[in-house]
Amino acid sequence: MILDFKELSPNHVYHTLTQTVVPRPIAWVLSKTAKGTLNLAPFSYFTAISSDPAILMYAVGQKPTGEYKDSVVNVEATQELVIHIADSTLAHEVTQSAASLPNDESELDLLDLAVCEFPGSSLPRIEKAKVAFACKLHKVVEMGELPMKLVFVEVTHAYIDDEIVQLDDKGRNKVDALKLDPLARLGGAEFASLGEVFKSARPK
């Protein structure tokens, strides 16, 4: 099968990309409205792009109304956010947090998710998440015909559950990927857990 993307609708392109660029990590983004309401939403157009500075990027689309989703509106207003890496046991909470709620209602209340203090951040983090990044806004780039906003954020602090990390023989943090068991996004309504981990050495 050969697909000519110029002949496909944006919806067809989306479904093709999301079913072939897999698995994708999920940025579970906690932000705060100007009035102080906490917002939580998942985004799977997400990756790390730089380590000096430590920059992550996630992409945000629009609501059916044509307005941008609350996450990017909040982040542009407050300049801060917390990105969580959810594990497979939180799949229900992650998917349910994608629901469209009024701006003054919090997904945290809907899902009864507890938060706790996050040293280094004025925002809290989700207590059950094994990894969280306190971030400040770096840049927002709007692109495409739809359009989308690419949100570039700089990591200032990271939380990693002590149960999944230890020092390697070079004194670096080594996260046990199986203990983290990050939730991965596939196409449609499909997700995946990590499964098998194997090694393949890079050439020298």
What key attributes describe this structure?
204 residues, alpha+beta, 7-stranded antiparallel β-sheet
Detailed description of the structure:
There is one protein chain. With 204 residues, this protein is an alpha+beta fold. 17% of the residues lie in helices and 36% in strands. It has helices at residues 10-20, 70-78, 91-96, 107-111, 177-180; strands at 24-25, 27-32, 38-43, 46-51, 54-60, 80-85, 115-116, 125-126, 131-143, 148-160, 165-167, 173-175, 184-185, 191-192. The strands form four sheets. The protein has a seven-stranded antiparallel beta sheet with strand order 3-2-6-9-10-5-4, with helices on one face. A three-stranded antiparallel beta sheet has the order 1-13-14, with no helix packed on it. The chain has a two-stranded antiparallel sheet with strand order 7-8. A hairpin with a 5-residue loop joins strand 13 and strand 14 (191-192). The mean pLDDT is 93.
